[in-house]
Every structure is written in structure tokens, then in C-alpha cells.
Amino acid sequence: MFSADWCPDCRFLDPFMPEIEEAYSDYTFVHVDRDKFLDLCADLDVYGIPSFVAFRDGKEIGRFVSKDRKTKEEVEKFIESLA
């Protein structure tokens, strides 16, 4: 998940992300601080946060990238679309 400490829409995810990570434990979740990894965000075309980019075997298999607030249901729907 790409986010930043100052981002209120990113902080909105904090209460339910542990539950999502537990429910989808087959996946490895990596939290990336956008401000510390600007080059990575640029390379992956991640300009809005919070955003999710999914990889399998080093290849991108899906993305949920925008500057809009994301609900628990939207994040779950994105993860389920990866299967």
C-alpha cells in the first residue's frame, strides 16, 4: 500500500487494514511511504494515495491507484479481483 503519514485518506485505512491483511494472509502486504520512495512511485505511476499495486513473481497483476479514499469493501473487492 502506498501512503503517507500526512494523508487523511490513508489514515482512514488504518483501522481495517490489519483485518484485511489477516483475511488475505496468502498475500504479502508491503506499506510504502510515498514521501520516502518518490522514485519508486514515479516508476510505478503512483501519484495518488492511498494506492495499491499487486505483484506476482515480480510482475504487476493489478492496481487500485487513485487519490480517492478507499473503503474496506473496495480494498477487498480489489484483492478478490486478483485471484
TrEMBL record:
CDD domains tied to this protein: TRX_family
Domain Thioredoxin intervals: 1-83
SUPFAM superfamilies: Thioredoxin-like
Matching Pfam families: Thioredoxin
Protein name, per record: Thioredoxin domain-containing protein
Species annotation: Heyndrickxia coagulans (Weizmannia coagulans)
Organism phylogeny: Bacteria, Bacillati, Bacillota, Bacilli, Bacillales
